[in-house]
Design a protein that fits this description.
Layout: E1 3-6, E2 9-12, E3 19-20, E4 24-27, H1 30-36, H2 42-58, E5 63-66, H3 76-83, E6 89-95, H4 120-130, E7 142-147, H5 154-170, E8 174-178, H6 184-194, E9 202-205, H7 213-221, E10 225-228, H8 239-251, E11 258-260, E12 265-268, H9 273-279, H10 287-298, H11 303-318
Parallel strand pairs: 3-5, 4-12, 5-6, 6-7, 7-8, 8-9, 9-10, 10-11
Antiparallel strand pairs: 1-2
Helix pairs in contact: 2-3, 4-5, 5-6
Family: Belongs to the metallo-dependent hydrolases superfamily. Phosphotriesterase family.
Keywords: Hydrolase, Metal-binding
GO molecular function, one term: zinc ion binding
Amino acid sequence: MATVETVKGPIDSGELGRTLVHEHVFVLGEEYRLNYDADWDEEQTVADAVRDLNDLKSAGIDTIFDPTVLGLGRYIPRIQKVAAQTELNIVVATGLYTYNDLPHQFEHRGPGLLFDQPEPLVEMFVKDIREGIADTGVRAAFLKCVIEEPGLTPGVERVMRAVGQASAETGAPITVHTNPHTRSGLVAQKVLAEEGVDLTKVVLGHSGDSDDIGYLMELADNGSLLGMDRFGLDVYLPTEQRVDTIVELVRRGYLDRLTLAHDASCYIDYFTPEERFEKQPNWNFRHIPDDVLPMLLEKGLSEDDIDTMLVTNPRRYVE
């Protein structure tokens, strides 16, 4: 057993229950919202999120890990409003989301830079984990970084090494947004290992976008968990292929390396709800409990297998 920080405070890891390891409550550009989104309704947006998460809880999911960090519009007071109105556990992260460059606030500050000083990103991440995010009292339970199609750019590498150093210092686990079609999960494993990270404490997000069994086995053999976490985003890989990939990995002995999620959100400002439904009608929190789990059972997995992916593996990740 271990203590896990949630938005409403610490709980025992045994209370996590069925867990989706990569979901978002809100994804938005806060600066854009403040300046240009005249239609924003804070009260209604929070109410809609409460409705969605309560619905997810009623579908048998007890916890979500929310890797919304700097760059994705993380604003903990808004998450607190939602958490106060749902029994579903929300576990939040620290880190920084970029495909290329760092925000200008960090451009000139750091080792060997104009203002030569210890890496401020590490200090920021560690503070979020040990003391809490801003003045909310909410402590991050895991770290998040990204390596996308542009690869290991100087900005991406700096964030990734800072995340690795913060993990090594605090013991907090890591989720990495990867692009499996560029095999970037292997790059992330190499860099994080160089910073002293235990690769068994790493979820390689969006691994489920690929059905390249060889690549996925290589990642898992290095110790990391595979984030089969974009169910409903059929534009990247249809649901049936995602299911078949999981079944094959289980057949080959990798059940203890698999986690599930949608990478969905209660609110995302990339498009309107109507546009989202038109393009990706299955991309919602109910897709896994309503559709994916029955498909996995039909294809030969057991209820114990499902619990390993939804309960045992996420719990081991945070313990």
